[in-house]
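Retry 2 of 3 after timeout on previous attempt. Resubmitting structure tokens to design endpoint.
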């Protein structure tokens, strides 16, 4: 019988046990959290294909800066995850592994380019996933897979060890099943929580009409 990861085609490589964590790391805010990373984010000693047959045998020499930060916080890097080839595309199709499968409806796409990250989180294969976002590549899979995703501002996080698409727009960020887990992971990536917790009511300003007439009524009602 196929595992969930196999059935959904969400994992490209499983990280060997000896490379999953930092043996020198003290207990941290992400201790024991299972983390998958999009396969254009390097994990030292593990295949880094960018979802392309062209890089089918490419092995990362060292951890990307974001991966190192997660390991030092106690995170366990379990896998590299499926994506649109070279992180360009909204359906997560590629020549290396084929596309990931939406866990809620196999007939629907999981979004892209971080489709494997959205799928792995939604299906419980990992607790947290890293994706990259140049033009929607975290936000689209989060929406399609029903999870929470965050695209940080460009330049806020270290992009070392991540295959580039556009230096002016690329960023890396977390996906998880709760906003709290996204916040905790982002705080580790940023080196500190840059957004103080608020306990009082929020005042929100937005343009109106905010959505056009062809948007699904459920989405329109949720925004309202």
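Retry 2 succeeded. Sequence:
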């Amino acid at each position: 019988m196929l595992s969930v990861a196999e059935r959904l085609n969400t994992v490209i490589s499983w990280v060997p046990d000896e490379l999953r964590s930092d043996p020198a790391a003290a207990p941290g805010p992400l201790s024991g959290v299972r983390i998958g990373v999009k396969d254009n984010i390097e994990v030292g000693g593990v295949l880094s294909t960018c979802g392309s047959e062209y890089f089918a045998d490419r092995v990362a020499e060292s951890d990307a800066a974001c991966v190192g930060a997660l390991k030092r916080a106690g995170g366990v890097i379990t896998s590299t995850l499926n994506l649109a080839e070279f992180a360009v595309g909204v359906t997560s199709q590629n020549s290396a592994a084929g596309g990931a499968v939406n866990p809620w409806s196999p007939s629907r796409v999981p979004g892209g380019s971080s489709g494997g990250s959205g799928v792995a989180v939604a299906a419980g294969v990992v607790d947290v996933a890293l994706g990259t976002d140049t033009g929607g590549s975290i936000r689209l899979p989060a929406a399609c897979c029903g999870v929470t995703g965050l695209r940080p501002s460009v330049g806020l996080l270290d992009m070392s060890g991540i295959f580039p698409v556009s230096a002016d727009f690329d960023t890396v960020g977390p996906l998880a099943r709760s906003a709290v887990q996204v916040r905790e992971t982002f705080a580790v990536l940023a080196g500190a929580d840059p957004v103080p917790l608020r306990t009082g009511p929020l005042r929100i300003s937005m343009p109106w009409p905010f959505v056009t007439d062809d948007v699904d009524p459920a989405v329109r009602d949720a925004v309202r």
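Attempt log closed. Helices lie at 4-8, 65-72, 115-122, 139-145, 179-190, 217-223.
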